[in-house]
Fold EMARD protein.
Amino acid sequence: MVLPDSVTTCLSPPVHYAICKLGFEKTDTYDINNILSGNGEVCWQAVTEHVSYLESDQSVDYIKSIRLLGPVCESVNLYFKSLTKEEFVVQYESWLHWTNCTEVFLEVFDVLQYTQATEVALGLMKLTSCLERALGDVYLLKGNDCPFLLRDLLASEQLADVFGQAVMNVLRVFIGSPHGLNLRNVLWHGFASPQEIPAKYCAMLLFLTAGLGQLLHTYLLQTEGVLVHRPSVIFISLEEFDAFPGKYLNNEILSIAEELVKLSSFVLKIMLPFWISALTAFKQSRYADSVILLLPQLEVGLRLLFTTSNKCPNRMLTAESSALYTTFDEMLAKHLDNEEVNQLPVVLEEPAMASDFLWDFLNHQEGPRIRDRLSHGEINLETFPREVANQIVGFAITILCRFSDEDMFSLKEHMVIKPLMDCASCYRSRFHPISRLKKQVLECMKSIRLWAELPTVPEEQVQKIKGLEGNAEADTLILMISEIISQLQHYVPKNCCSSDDLINSVLTERLLVELCDTHICTLYSPRPVLEVVAVLRRISAQCHQVSQQVIAGAELRYTQWVNKTLRSRQRHNYRRMLNSINFLSSVLLLILLLITLELVSVHSVCKKNPFDYQQYLKFLKSVLQYTENLVTYTSPEKNKWDETMELTKKTLIKLRKICDRKLMLMHLAT
């Protein structure tokens, strides 16, 4: 393995030259007054004159442009250092309001006064993310779907129409183009160490952001337009972010973590300041700063393991503009570009845990996607929740511990870290589609359970409605459900409860809970499995909607009954509803049971019976069709309970026949 101390840079020679040297080759002093008007506005024409173009196709010559802009950046940096905070606020604050993150940019000005390398890098990461978000808002003045990638956003016609192409070319020298300095990417992907980012580039981007505000102000006056800011992403259901509870991240363990970063082979020595600053920020309750600093370091540490285990040390460095960076997406993939198996999971002591956690918090679409949302400016940094930061910090500490010499720690320190390590070892995916399906099933089950608490009309009052006797057909259908459940019971995993009376809702609910608690491998789920899970999720969602409609409808009809506002036909329909819902709850629980049994066998069926896979999917889609029809019939607009019973009868007969085929598939899978 590459020793962390032996790595002196993660920038390839050309990228290192472009960032650390090219902009310093011209040593002449540039007069700030050339690009600054008397009232402090940016003279854009003077700035754009420093961008050079290739004679061949008039595209930007990034090498010459970086060299020419170097003295300008230095002049801006010195100019900002000459201003007091009050002078900067008076002159530039109003021009930064368009970003909707004014405070972040004011903080960057503060950082530039002291030029502490780690803080400059952090400020630049925050600046670029906020600037990207603001530019996306401007894009939406003229376009519909904002590009996801910064390079596509900066190259768009929409922004060129607002700011001018020459202005956008200046920005692309600094960010967004792999041919330029590409400061955003080299920082957010963990390639640049603190001392490799010149403060003058951070100062220049702050200056340009204010200048963009001036141009935008003029554009909005001319077009009578209004800039609308997209709302920030808000993390909901924070109780799901409890893999590493905050109670385990006390000052004692954070102090140990500060020692761990100096000893762990996971940490590159050149990146040590980032780790120390991240832990300090967490202790100071600066949770967004802590996570922003840690995410690139987790990436570079995993890249070190990835390139070593897969014997591709050259991938440790930034790739050139003609190739891709080695990022989280590739490191978490099952196979490499050459189709060989990725060896990184083998190196990790808890491969499923580490990969599941990273997929959950970084990649899965229904997960928090923390790195994407932070780096693209989608999150309000001031209100970033500690619950989310706990997860990244907790995970980072467990990784540090795994790649440290155990003999270097006392028993007491081990006892402090042990709870975190236990949390890591028992981690199970929370945001994989399979995990979300389990959650859906349990939520639907809880909703159906509420049916027993619905208010109902006393029997003697219902009897007054002539022409409505007891529903014998429902009893027949319940017997049919019992037969299907009896068949399915043979395929319930041995470690789950079993009973001859699973038609009993309490026993069925208990079985559902146990089935959902069964561990199912989610890492690298093949496409057929994900297709099946997608259908199962749609079925579950339809069942939940039916349950919600029944609850709302029953409560409304009861209130109308008590208030005597129901017409004769509505009273008859209400009686049909009361006769049907107990039976319908059994049907929905049966479907949930089918879903969970499908779930625990889905990997085996898709793998061992590829030729039966389409029939298997067809079976599920027939169930989906029934639940979709059920949503229609039980809706407030339709409220067709006779049709619901008839549809259910036909479906149960069909299910019993199809179930024989399904059970054979499940038998082959076991």
